Amino acid sequence: MAVTIFTQTSCTSSKKALQWLKENKISFTEKRITSEQLTLPEFKMILGMTEDGTDEIISTNSKDFKNLNCDINQLSIQELYDIVKDHPKMLRSPILVDEKRLQVGYNDMDIRRFIPRKVRAYELYEMQRLSLEG
């Protein structure tokens, strides 16, 4: 179960997420969207996995978004993709995905969902065991 992480150059959250993946020995593929263009299938996959649609992945505080002067909710997926392709810094980062999960941004607790379930179950068991001993 490989993770794909979409990052941006000089993004602190992206760096933290990459470091966390390495420390937890989780296999991943990095795609730096500021230098390697996001494909339409990748964009559709990410958008399809969101719970809040564009609100979850578009950074409305970014300069690129503010300079758009358009309502992105009125755009087709193709039109939105064309804008994101030309202005990748509009996307929040990092974006981590695997077959079942999506995480936008870096959060110490939420990123743990990418640890295999067996490992998380074992860690919980160990914590419970230690708390009973102490």
From TrEMBL:
Pfam families: ArsC (PF03960)
Xref: InterPro entries: Arsenate_reductase-like (IPR006660), Thioredoxin-like_sf (IPR036249), Tscrpt_reg_Spx/MgsR (IPR006504)
Annotated family: Belongs to the ArsC family.
Stated name of the protein: Transcriptional regulator Spx
Domain of life: Bacteria
